[in-house]
Amino acid sequence: MSAFQYLLVYNSISFTFAAMAAATIFLWFGRSEVAPPYRTALVISGLVTAIAAYHYFRIFQSWEAAFLFENGVVSNTGYAFNDAYRYVDWLLTVPLLLIELVLVMRLSRDETVSKATRLGVAAALMVILGYPGEIADSNGTRALWGFLSTIPFAYIVYELFSGLSRAIETQPPQVRSLLKQARLLTFASWGFYPIVYMAPFAGLDGPTANTTIQIGYTVADLVAKVGLGILIYIIAIRKSEIEMTKTTPVQA
Amino acid sequence: MSAFQYLLVYNSISFTFAAMAAATIFLWFGRSEVAPPYRTALVISGLVTAIAAYHYFRIFQSWEAAFLFENGVVSNTGYAFNDAYRYVDWLLTVPLLLIELVLVMRLSRDETVSKATRLGVAAALMVILGYPGEIADSNGTRALWGFLSTIPFAYIVYELFSGLSRAIETQPPQVRSLLKQARLLTFASWGFYPIVYMAPFAGLDGPTANTTIQIGYTVADLVAKVGLGILIYIIAIRKSEIEMTKTTPVQA
């Protein structure tokens, strides 16, 4: 691994830890700026970035332990870089990301529970099925598990663009386009993970494949977690304002 | 590197960590002292100093790892001092600094979004374009990237002194001069970075250039982040008082 590759990953991981921790504090402070029904959505958005901050801290330590960077030369220490931190993170955060999207819509209790459960289970399944492929040595095994993981992913996309569409139409007109942006951001950033997953198929191997995977997943995590968190915050603020104006007609 | 140079940087970095962490706590406690529309400005001011505190902690660790100070003699350990922490920090904090300045003005929603977006993007571009020059070996490459980075900087200065001037005139008279001070402080402290950046052109090299750059950036960070944060706090307090007096005419 070149010094450039080593430092690019090193600094990106440190940057992402700082960004996730900052987003967490922002989202949790935002809790008291929104109406009570939207507070849980902000708590969960902040939990997602907090869990990610913890894992990026661990990934940073693991990266430092795996390589020795001395006199401008990078060498392996013999300790393996622990890639599982990312999957452990996603197992917790990916279902929560879908739940924060459902919660900010403030549907009926039954709808919230049913949508959150179905999307959450599918998301967990998607992460679990991807992992055996990530650690596989052969590209064939990687492709097989990658394909299996795509089945729950396709179900989530179907739910987002079909089931959730009807729910979006019941939302106040001022936030519909924001909700569609949040859905698109979820879809686009999640669609980025399988592309990174397939980096070894593009003929990349060794340090170059590893660097591409690390940077790719890091960028996708930033968009999917911090980006979605900020959108959820804006939607919660807008909906709180709309509902407050409605209940106090004097201001209208 | 002389023992004096080593210790000067070492203690300045430790000082700055403490100052950033203290400013963070001050700004976040201040949140409950101001009217609700100004809380986000204080949260973000505190986020800027919190992110900086994290990076000064890392810079401190990196400085300790890079040099051995034993029996009064400083020697290199072979581990490189990681200069990228500063750029990673600025990539997050410099856009946020401009956003806190826009937020405390409490403009219309559209104006806030458009000004925050344009200034934020220009600030990120300025930092990204500066980095290749910072790590370049030749002064020519340093000058080239430094010049490119000056283009978004010039745009920010133009926005601050033209677009923001009109906005400042809509502010209550009691805070106009404070807002102009905040703008001047931003301009003056940011103007300090390119001067430090060009230290190698003044014929400085090796440890002397390194010490000058470290101390220069540290002082600039303190003024730009802690200094601006305190000004934003004072402006938020004054504006909260003015608006409270307006809505409760009994006190007027």
UniProtKB/TrEMBL annotation, chains A, B:
Gene3D superfamilies listed in its UniProt record: Rhodopsin 7-helix transmembrane proteins
Alphabetized UniProt keyword annotations: Chromophore, Membrane, Photoreceptor protein, Receptor, Retinal protein, Sensory transduction, Transmembrane, Transmembrane helix
Keyword Signal included in the entry's annotation: no
Transmembrane portions of the chain: 6-29, 84-104, 116-132, 144-161, 182-203, 215-236
Cell location: Membrane
Keyword rRNA-binding: no
Leader sequence segment: none
Membrane-topology descriptor: Multi-pass membrane protein
Superkingdom of the organism of origin: Bacteria
PROSITE patterns, per database record: BACTERIAL_OPSIN_1 (PS00950)
Pfam families for this protein: Bac_rhodopsin
Xref: PANTHER family: BACTERIORHODOPSIN _OPSIN, NOPA (EUROFUNG), PTHR28286
Protein family: Belongs to the archaeal/bacterial/fungal opsin family.
Name of protein: Bacteriorhodopsin-like
